[in-house]
Amino acid sequence: RLIYHSIAFQYFMPESQQRVAAAIERAGQRATETTPIGWLRFERTPDEQDPTLRLRSWPGGKNRLLATSHPHGTYVNWLGDVPAR
Q1: What is the pLDDT along the chain (85 residues), one digit of tens a residue?
Q2: Helices marked H in the chain — which ranges?
Q3: Could you tell me if 19 and 27 are in contact, meaning their C-beta atoms sit under 8 angstroms apart?
Q4: What is 27-50 written as a DSSP string?
Q5: Cα–Cα distance between 35 and 59 in angstroms, integer?
Q6: From CA 27, how far away is CA 59, in angstroms rounded?
């Protein structure tokens, strides 16, 4: 299963962002090797100029920074599998 969103999260109220992130985290904690879950998101965060493409995967909760990009895809800086915060 994969949960994904693109340039949407920033428009949610902070309470909604926290609620959605917590629900995804709870689902991730229930993931197993036979029922993995991924959270793929292309979003801009307050401390970043360009949107980033990030993947968090469970089991394990590994968080990876995959790319930075122009919001409309004018350029994509593919990073591959960089550990992310």
Answers
A1: 999 999 999 899 999 999 999 999 999 999 999 999 999 999 987 787 889 999 999 999 999 999 999 988 899 999 977 666 6
A2: 14-29
A3: no
A4: HHHT--SSS-EEEEEEE--TT-SS
A5: 9
A6: 10
Residues 83, 80: Cα–Cα separation, whole Å: 10
3-state secondary structure (DSSP) of residue 11: helix
Tokens, residue 73: 């895809």
Q: Is the pTM of this model over 0.90?
A: no
Report cis status (omega within 30 of 0) of the bond before 51.
no
The one-letter code for the residue type at 30 is R
Token digits of residue 40: 């793929």
Q: Would you say 65 and 54 are in contact if contact means Cβ atoms under 8 Å apart?
A: yes
Dihedral pair phi/psi, residue 58, rounded to 5°: -125, 150
Name which of 44, 36, 35 is nearest 62 in CA terms: 36
